[in-house]
Amino acid sequence: MLKQQIAARLEQAFSQYGFAEPSVAQLKAACEVSLRTLYKHYPSKEAMIIGALAYRHQRYLDFLQQGSPATGIEAVKHIFTQLKLWMQQYAPHGCMSMNAIAAFPDNAEIILAVKQHKQDVRQFLAQQSLRADLATQLFLLHEGISSAWPLLGEEAIVSAHQTVKQLMEINL
């Protein structure tokens, strides 16, 4: 349980300060634990990042499913509506996973954690849409919104809803 609490606080700290800025001492303070306890659960800054990303991954998938219609076009529209709320509340500067790769482009473990997250999101979109054949297109739309959010904001979601409707109706 303590490890999850630390991961939650690490997620908040990295989301707020980015990956380059906070020192381990700052992360320890954000987690409200001793340095020994922090290192017991996460023995390096990279391990702390991976722990924060794993925690955020599950929180994100749970968030996308909140109040969702079962499956189909309405479920996909709901995902993009939830994405809007996520970006507003938790990711106004873009995708935390992609920011992690930008900060640590040569770290294989961080890259692997991000790849797994992105694969799971793609699979989730396929399951919710009932359209495995459109999983890549829906995923690219999702990623485009995450990247464009700081510039386009809500306009990206409006466009996504239109595109989802066109994709799913044309490709029946």
UniProtKB/TrEMBL annotation:
Residues 23-42 bind DNA. Keywords: DNA-binding, Transcription, Transcription regulation. It holds the Pfam family TetR_N. Residues 1-60 form the HTH tetR-type domain. Transmembrane segments: none annotated. InterPro entries: Homeodomain-like_sf, HTH_TetR. This is HTH tetR-type domain-containing protein. It comes from Shewanella saliphila.
